[in-house]
Design a protein that fits this description.
About 20% of the residues lie in helices and about 35% in strands. It is of the alpha+beta class. It has 3 domains: about 100 residues, PH-domain like, CATH 2.30.29.30; about 120 residues, Roll (PH-domain like), CATH 2.30.29.30; about 30 residues, no CATH class. An 8-stranded antiparallel β-sheet has the order 8-14-13-12-11-17-16-15, covered by helices on one side. It comes from Myotis brandtii.
């Protein structure tokens, strides 16, 4: 279920013949690059998989790795951090000379990093220019409300409210840099509550963004109620089809050439364009790829070869078993050597294992 794309998630690139060199060395797999994460799964055993969100990535580099399938080769190193633990992933492209693994992942991650305004709660940012909101690509202003009080202080601050299809923005009229940007992605609740200033719009942000509770005073009450209704409606629309702001298009394989041709007279030019467009439409509906090959025996139709996917009868154990993550621990996760202890299983002294780990579990990861 976690491998399925969520609303707003778009598949950008799909690379076959990618090896998870650190965790599943020697296992050929597929790498999916979306606008939110990287997904790898084994081709032989799809339930062996992993998902790396771009927000967890600390660094992406290319270095030499030792692959069982390709030997010494250039690989993609991804250093991540989840909670307080660092993990390192190494991916190797098993197709010699193909740079797509590096270009796709690095470029999409860069697009994610440069579009955080769509997704992150921001305070005191460069949001306003000449008293107008600096719009993001794909962003549209649905309402602008003057005379909105921010109730973050005892006196309150008078400012302006912008309601867009991506976020809510408020800024002080006396100081544009005193502002807040609240993406719908980070909004937990939108309500009308009573305060010492009277009825107010209260927006609670997600715990991930800091769990802020912001109050805004909008007069008259009818305008307050209409604004809350509008924000809730836009928030509902956004939740059904989020705009994450990660725009990246794969380069056309043909090189994207632009060619110009001069045809006289104009009547002949117009007739030629009409004819070409007509033929292009016919070709698009039924392309001719020119690959002609006859089998000695007539192959079965695709419908006869299609096998219905059977759901694995697997029981999911909800208990946390950290053994699966051991292979991906980055070296920087270990602060110092632990005290040696005698292992009766091995008959020698070993470094004391972390809580929750067993020798049997470590051997299973290695195998």
């Amino acid at each position: 279920r976690q491998m399925k794309t969520r609303p707003g998630e778009v598949l950008i690139d799909c690379l076959d013949s990618i090896e998870d060199t650190k965790g599943n060395n020697g296992d050929r797999g597929r790498l999916l690059v979306t606008n939110l994460r990287i997904i790898w799964h084994s081709l032989a055993l799809p339930r062996v998989n992993l998902s790396i969100g771009y927000n967890c990535i600390l660094n992406i580099t290319t270095r030499t790795a030792n692959s069982k399938l390709r030997g010494q080769t250039e690989a993609l190193y991804i250093l991540t951090k989840c909670n307080s633990t660092r993990f390192e992933f190494i991916f190797t492209n098993l197709i010699p000379g193909s740079p797509r693994l590096f270009t796709s992942v690095i470029a999409v991650h860069r697009a994610y990093e440069t579009s955080k305004m769509y997704r992150d709660f921001k305070l005191r940012s460069a949001l306003i220019q000449n008293k107008e909101l600096r719009l993001l690509p794909q962003e549209h202003v649905y309402d602008k409300i003057n005379g909105v009080w921010n109730l973050s202080s005892d006196q309150g601050n008078l400012g302006t409210f912008f309601i867009t299809n991506v976020r809510i923005v408020w800024h002080a009229n006396m100081n544009d840099s005193f502002n807040v940007s609240i993406p719908y992605l980070q909004i937990r609740s939108i309500k009308i509550r009573d305060s010492k200033f009277g009825l107010a719009l209260v927006i609670e942000s997600s715990q991930q963004s800091g769990g802020y509770v912001l109050g805004f005073k909008i007069d008259p009450v009818e305008k307050l109620q209409a604004s809350v209704k509008e924000i809730n409606s836009l928030h509902k629309v956004y939740s059904a089809s989020p705009i994450f702001g990660v725009d990246y298009e794969m380069e056309e394989k043909s090189g994207g050439y632009v060619l110009g041709f001069k045809i006289d007279p104009v009547e002949k030019l117009q007739a030629s364009v009409k004819e070409i467009n007509s033929l292009h439409k016919v070709y698009s509906a039924s392309p001719i790829f020119g690959v002609d090959y006859e089998m000695e025996e007539k192959p079965q139709p695709l419908e006869a070869l299609t096998v219905e996917q059977i759901q694995d009868d697997v029981e999911i154990d909800s208990d946390d078993h950290p053994d699966a993550f051991v292979a991906y621990f980055a070296d920087g996760n270990k602060q110092q050597d632990r005290e040696p202890v005698f292992s009766e299983e091995l008959g020698l002294a070993i470094e004391k294992l972390k809580d929750g780990f067993t020798l049997q579990g470590l051997w299973e990861v290695m195998s």
